[in-house]
Automatic annotation (TrEMBL):
Allows the formation of correctly charged Gln-tRNA(Gln) through the transamidation of misacylated Glu-tRNA(Gln) in chloroplasts and mitochondria. The reaction takes place in the presence of glutamine and ATP through an activated gamma-phospho-Glu-tRNA(Gln). This protein may be expected to contain an N-terminal transit peptide but none has been predicted. Pfam families: Amidase. Subunit of the heterotrimeric GatCAB amidotransferase (AdT) complex, composed of A, B and C subunits. Residues 74-463 form the Amidase domain. The active site is at 129 (charge relay system), 204 (charge relay system), 228 (acyl-ester intermediate). The keyword Ligase applies. Its main location: mitochondrion. This is Glutamyl-tRNA(Gln) amidotransferase subunit A, chloroplastic/mitochondrial.
Amino acid sequence: MLSTLHSPRSLSRFPLHLTSSVKPRAASASSASSLSDYPPPPLPAAQSPGGAPASQILTVRRSLLSGSVTATQLAESYLSRLRLTEPQLNSFIHVSDSVLKSAQEIDDKIAKGGGEALGPLAGVMVGVKDNICTADMPSTGGSRILENYRPPFDATAVKRLKEKGGIVVGKTNLDEFGMGSTTEGSGFQVTANPWDLGRVPGGSSGGSASAVSARQCVVSLGSDTGGSVRQPASFCGVVGLKPTYGRVSRFGLMAYASSLDVIGCLGTSVADVGIFLNAISGHDKFDATSSKQSLFTSINLLESKPLSGLKVGLIRETLDDGVDSGVKSAINAAVLHMQELGCIVNEVSLPSFSLGLPAYYILASSESSSNLSRYDGVRYGKQTVSDELNALYANSRASGFGPEVKMRILMGTYALSAGYYDAYYKRAQQVRTLIRESFKTALETNDILISPAAPSVAYKMGMLVVSYYS
């Protein structure tokens, strides 16, 4: 997640206001620096306290209720911007054909005097990562094995954002089944970074981060197993949050590593991400791991010290030798900023912290090997023509999966095999329990733990940790 220490800046090299004189250009290696030719968008007129970017969600709501703009006009503006930028960015795998219809329904409701009953996301354009199911659009997981697959239902997170007035723009690109950190591992296309077309947007939620950064949508849904929301958010200059495991229902999320996967949020401001998270979170009867606990108490941002009394633990082992000096400086600056907001910052020691990364790789690969076994050309997935059943399974998976997915399946299958289960998978689970207990102890005297690790090992172990990126 980006620190609010950064001064407000344009989040994309694309112009915010489109004109007829601006023509789409084809992406190419030679034009990778062409975004500098576009003027940056103006800063929002309104700013949050402390100079943070204003909430685009609240701006949309005020505009709709005041009548200064209609939901249809807003939707047309974003669609025009998407058509301008998409040939270069490739943020979306599929764009919805019902955007204007949904916007018109909101306008009709306002015209009938129902403006005050609008949901908190009314008129807000939302991108959805393509490993999150949508009933009216393809959901491929970024894999050729699920090409043209259309689920018969919406994921709970998608259902809730629609119920609160959000408009799904389309499905964003990703590394195949969320396995990657550049979005170059997609089975369909490579997404570019809006700041520089020659650079990657991060991954695996690179399409969601790129879309928000280029203002193709207001907010977007991603998924985070080991940094797949937070890392691309950092690369693209937006805010990304991996909620605590169980905060958002995983029903409808294509499983990579079930004990680590979380649906996350991306937006241009901390306020937008908070509003969006509040809209999609909550217990779900279709997900036994979803939490029944309330989200959080409201924070008065108008106070001089809105975080007064919040106890924050800084993990000592994440600032040892090997951490870049720029990262250390960013963390120290973030600590000073939190203290100015009223936080009490303490240093905590977690000696087992470094064991989290190897444990994560074993657990994630093992779970992916199990979860992806369903894509066999019979139960799910594109089927190849074969004369024999085992050949059908083998050929369907060989032609449908990309190289990264195949490698992780092989690693996981090896770790779960009879001769190596105790040495690898079982031991990784024991390490995970050890680390979780150490975090529970640290959280007895602290409300939040922070780490510069990208992605945070503590998040991987299913604990509540805030990651800062320089």
